[in-house]
Structures are given as structure tokens and as C-alpha cells.
Amino acid sequence: MIMKTLKYTFSALIAVLLCAYVVSCGEDYSSPLKGQTVSDQTFETGTNSKTVTIGTKDLSKCTVSSSANWCSATIQNSTVVITVQPNDTYEQREAIVTLTDREDGTILSFKVVQKQNDAILVDKPDYLIPEEGGEISIKVQSNVSYSVEIPSDASWLTRTTPSTRGLVNSTIVLKADKNNTGDERGTIIKLKDQETGTTTQFTVKQELTPNIELSKEEISLFEDGGEFEIKVKSNIALTSTISDDWISSNGRSNEEGFGFVEKFRVSSLPSDQSGRNATIDFSDKIEKWKISKTIKIKQIRSLAIEEEKLEMFVDDSYSLTLNNNTGQSVTWKSSNASVAKVNSYGRVTAVGKGSATITATTEDGKYSAKIGVKVKVALYISSKDVSIYIGDTYKLDYTNNTDQDLIWESSDNSVATVDGRGKVTGIGVGSTTIKVTTADGRRTDNSTVNVLKKVVYKAEAVDLGLSVLWSAYNLGATSPEEYGEYFSWGETAPKIGYSRDSYSFFDNSMNSCVDIGEDISGTKYDAAHVNVGNGWRMPTKSELLELKNNCKWEWTKYNGTNGYKIIGPNGNYIFLPAAGYMIFKTITRLGEWTEYWSSSNDHNAFAFLLVDNGHSPVVISFEKYYGYSIRPVKSK
To answer: Are β-strands 238-242 and 468-471 bridged in parallel, bridged antiparallel, or unpaired?
Structure first.
């Protein structure tokens, strides 16, 4: 018990001694922060450092901190180094730097201030003012006093309200006059800091919408010409361009802004012209806007037919459009009434193929107007009367001036059929009508086709002592006294009727014969060559003359048939029966005249043949569509 009491007494004594030592030591230490003061530290907006001296004692037992992360501080001996980051804001900012003595807890604090970033801000860099002018508002943010500077060459722009001071929203109102310059315009506005001279700038542009207005868009003048004027309104500079030299500018007088009145002169219309057209273009002079307006100029005659030309089909009618500015009535006339006729109202009726001129003339004869009329056949079969043999085919010649498909038909398919291209096939003996019609049914034409039983052709050579051998009988005959068949010149088959319409080589639309050669002997147009072959052909004109001049001719009767016995230089002879000729469907002069084709052409519608009427033979020319006999010849 006594020992335990002694132990506690000793421990208490040791504790008292330690406390006394500590108190003794604390009374000897003095904090370097005691009695120190530091004024506010001010920094500019950028990165910066500053050293702050705090007494003379070492601060190593102290700590330092900053209330803001943009401000940092470090202790170096008896100083504190303050570093600040750039202030990108438009407000001043502050931080508190605190030093604490770790030994006795003494605290020293001071303020760090960083200035704001001075600025003048506008809401956008460019502003656009309409052409007619007006006000624009520029939103400004600033924390300095500023002035508005408008260039001296932008007198069209004025400021109407002052700016405000401080970091607040403010508005600058600018007013622009109407843009009458003829082009877009713009300027640069500067906002200047009145203390530092720093500027912020923006662009103001005034637009221009180019416009051109013409007092007229179309002008008509009569043949005598004259002057006219055009009033032009525009907000840009213009130039005028004339398309033809019969119009010329006669001066320009200026109007308000870029407007003007320009006069033009028109020359007289040449006598060989019914009218003419031109244009005048008013366009951007500086070629910036790519804008233009055009006026149409028409010079016409006091009396004019609106149509320039007229093409018609036979039997069609058309009413001409007459522009009559004379105040007089007119008389209509056709130069060829067989082609086209015209009534008192200018209605033209196509009569026949060809050309004509229709003329309208005023009562006093001073003015007249003309138009050419060309008349064509809409649908026409040239082969009007065709003869073919059973089993043979024949392609009809036709003209289709319409834009229609054609429909072909035969009135009797037991005689002949026809395909969609006009090719006829002989089926049985007889006659049929081949009809062609346009798909719309408006146009039609027809042709007669005669189908014959096919003849067996042959020839027997007789040498008369001449340059060629002559056949003993006519083409289509089998004995000397038989008349044989009749042929139109150039056709290779006989037919029922002989006329211009039935002649394969007569074109009614042209009113002339088709040229098939100067001499058809031995060609596809030679009936003897085609039907007999083996070198047999039609005699030429010179060979007929040789037969006429070098042989003896005796009028006689052979086996009951009248004709000529022709005796050659060597004493041999042939008999030419007086077969006459065929016109339409009739044999004429049968038993009286001998008439035989040569292969020689005379001119368009005629060919040479040998003729004798019982008195003396002659070689003459006659129309090709007649049906005459052929006596074949053959070279030796």
C-alpha cells in the first residue's frame, strides 16, 4: 500500500516538471507573422508573378494557401511569391492568400486582386441594310467607355442613339438613306475604347436589288418606218443593244436616278419583204447583275397576209388571215385557178397539183399582199390501169403525202389480191378495182387491174439479107397472119385498155412520162426480150428504116389477112399483118394499117414506130401509151 502511494507521487512530480519546461520554452518563441500586415496585391489581366516580403524572419515554419485556383502562392525564406493566371473574363476577380504559423497557429491574410479583361463586343460582324434604307440596331456588350466612328465617306449612314457605359448590354442604332448609287455599298464601323484606344469593328452593307421597267414590251410599225421612244425606269446603269441595223438609236434623255427616255429610228421596209422582227435589249452596263429586259419590234405592211406560205392537198380549203390596216376593202385573186382558187373572203380551195400566188389588193390599188400556194396530191396511185397475167405480181406506183398508214383492198379477190404495200397478184381472168385509203378514212384513190391468161410467146427467125434476123410473126402470135398482142411502149404485158391513165410510165401528178431510157432494146422494158428471150428483142429505129428502105413492100392478103409481104435483098420474105392499133379498149384500123413499135425513144411522151396505111411505109413517132404490135428481131 505504501509502495503504490509512492509510485503515484513520483509520476505526478515528473509531469509537473515537464509542464514547467514547456512553459519555459513557449515563452521564448516569437512567430514571424506577429505584427505583420500586407496591403492588397493588384495584378493585370495576363499571367503575372509578384514577390511579397513579410518581415525579416524565416517563414519556413509557416504554410501558405489561396482561396482561388487561378492564384497560387509559395514561401521563399522571408517572402511569398504570388502567381496569377490570365483573366479571360470581363469582370475583376479577387482571392485571399493565407499564411499560417505551424508553431503557434498565428495567421496572416491579404487580398489579391486581378483586373478584368476590357472589351467591346458586338453580336455579329456584318449587318445588312435593305436598299430603301432604314435603321439597324447593333447589340453591344462593353465594360469600358467607347465612341462610335463612322467613316467620312459613309455619309449615308448616321447614328441616332448614344452608347452606354459599363459591362452591360447596350444598343447602337444606325440609320441608312435609300441606296440610289446603282450598286451595293458598305462601310466599316469602329467602336473605340476612349481610354486605351483599342477598337472593335464591324461591317455594315446596304443591298441593292436591280430593277428594270420598260414603258412598252412590244412595238409595231408599218412599212414606212419612223421613230418611237421607250421610257426606262431602273436603279442601275443600263446599256441598250439593237439586234438589227434597220433600227438605230436617236439619243437618250436622263430621268430620275438611272432612268431615261431613249428614242429609236426605223428605216422603211424593203419592197421584197412582207415584214421583219428585231429586239432591243436593256441590260446591266457593268455586267454585274446579269439582268436585262427585252422589247420586241415588229415592222409590218399596212396590208399583210399573216401566213408566210401555204401547202395544201387537192380538194382541201383554208381561210387566209389578212391584217388590213388600210381602212379599205380588198379584192382577192389567184394567179392559177386550175391549181388554187380563192373567194372574196380569202378562202383558198386547192384544185390541182402545182403552184399559184394568191393576191389581196386594196380598192385604190396602193397596197397589196401575196402568198404562194403549193398544192400536192395527198394520196395518188400513178398506175391507173394495169394488166397482168394470172400468177404474176405487180407493184403499184403510188404517192402518199399524208402522215397516215394506208389500207389496201381489192374489189374482187378472185381476180386479183393486194397486200399492205400495194403489190397486186393475178388470180383469175377479169378486172378488179384496187383501192387505197388512209387510216383516218379521209383520203382514197383507186386503180383498175386487168388479169389476163398468160400467152405463150415464140419467134421463128427469117434472114432477109439485112443486118438482123426478123421473126416470122408478131409478138404473141403463132403464125404470120395472126395479129398477136398489143403493147404500150416500155410495157411487157398486153392489157384490156390503153390510155394515159393505164400507162405504167405516165405520172398524172407530173402530167408527163417517166424517163426509162433513150433505147429500151434488150432491157427489162423490152416486151420481146422479156417474153421470148433467147436474144430476141424489139427492133431499133435504124433497123425499121433498114427494113423500110432495103426491102420490097407488097400489099397483099395472106391466109385471109390483109398486110404487107416484105421481100428482102436475098429473096426471102416476111408478112406483116395490118393489125391496126388499140386505144382505150378498141382495136382501130384493123385490116387497114400496119403499125409496129421500135425500141427508140423520141422525147418525153413519144417513141418511134413503123406505120403504113396501105400506101407507103414511114417511120414516125407517136404517143407511148397507145397499143401497137411488135415484130421481134435477133442479131445474126
So the answer is: unpaired
